[in-house]
Specification:
156 residues, alpha+beta, five-stranded mixed sheet, CheW-lke_dom, CheW-like_dom_sf
Amino acid sequence: MIKNDMDNAEKLLDSAADELEILVFTIDDQVFGVNVSQVREILMPEAVDKVPQGHPSVEGVYMPRDILITVINLADYLGIYLPPDQRTLFIVSDVNKLNAAFRVNNVLGIERISDKNIEKAEVSYAKEGVLFGIVRVNKRLISLVDFEKVVEDIAP
């Protein structure tokens, strides 16, 4: 009986090893995903203090709960026009020792995908590797973004 339980546990671990959970979000009418391991929390946007001579996609900084967070306009970084009156959210991440809030339009939820279903991205935004793949979920194409690569490009 114990052997069967161990076999089942090993099968579960093996099947989970090739799966990835992604947080699915939108910017304008485009759908993106990011590995949930790169997400700390989702916050409503707050006023941002400008930072002089920063990267053009960095809106500035703000301090919720006494933590300094750099706000990155992901639409701007990816070259997507986002009308200023559209609703937005912050996806907060701590990558490469930088607390960053990525401004997006909407969060749609979390999806579990198989590594085998990720297609290599033919087109990349900004610096190579930012868009590392595309996956189809529920008849919808999701472009997978690597927040770590975005931060490396903005704050090397």
